């Protein structure tokens, strides 16, 4: 849901990017070039999700100089002109978000760690539908952090509501090696394989982000939440309660099942699974 082409600052054409992902087993791909909405009808045997990455740049002269916020936007409500956005404070940035939500049905806050916002600034913003918990291009190399999990937990503990996604932010290169900046983060969506169904499912939270392991089933039965997964080393249930529930095998064997009984004061529940290679998948937060 976050890739770039030669239309903006990517290394490959739309057809080349679509072929790269199709040849590696992807069902769909979101093209989100900077400030240019994807209007391609390219047919490469993979569902093309049309989007744009819009930016709002900080215009102050203090140590925040160079900070900016990027938002991926999908499902235009009307044919509106793409324009430049600027901000000096969170109120200005909220105005940008309000404008984007008037223009698009679905808005994602991209790479929040890379954008260098403080936690209280994140807590003050409202209106986007989803936020990247993992960005394969930016997080590790440019922030030193592997994902935005701590930020997400802070926001959930403060009653913020949103969906989470994992994306490549692919610009290039692609050589078929482990150093490629692709296939690091992706989203498993419960939808038919067409653009309308995929975007509607994402808008409704019928998807989960992963860097590798898979969630096979996740459900609530009475006061019990149950999850089935591909083989992993840990299953961790988070909530606003003081203690998480950390499930693992004492003999260090892989596990595929975990459950959590609601204690009564939770206002959200969220699950993370970690495989033997350290790769992670997250459920969507369940808002109780």
Q: What do you see in this structure?
A:
With about 290 residues, this protein is an alpha+beta fold. It folds into two domains: about 1-210, TIM Barrel, CATH 3.20.20; about 210-288, Immunoglobulin-like (Sandwich). The protein has six helices and 17 strands. The chain has helices spanning about 15-20, 90-105, 120-125, 140-145, 150-155, 195-205; strands at about 30, 45-60, 70-75, 85, 105-110, 130-135, 165, 185-190, 205-210, 215-220, 225-230, 235-240, 245, 255-260, 270-275, 280, 285. The strands form four sheets. Strands 1, 2, 3, 4, 5, 6 and 7 form a seven-stranded mixed sheet that branches. Strands 12, 13, 15, 16 and 17 form a five-stranded antiparallel sheet that branches. Helix 3 links the parallel strand 5 and strand 6 (about 130-135). The longest helix has 14 residues, at about 90-105. The two termini are about 25 Å apart. The relative contact order is 0.11. The model has no long low-confidence stretch (mean pLDDT about 95).
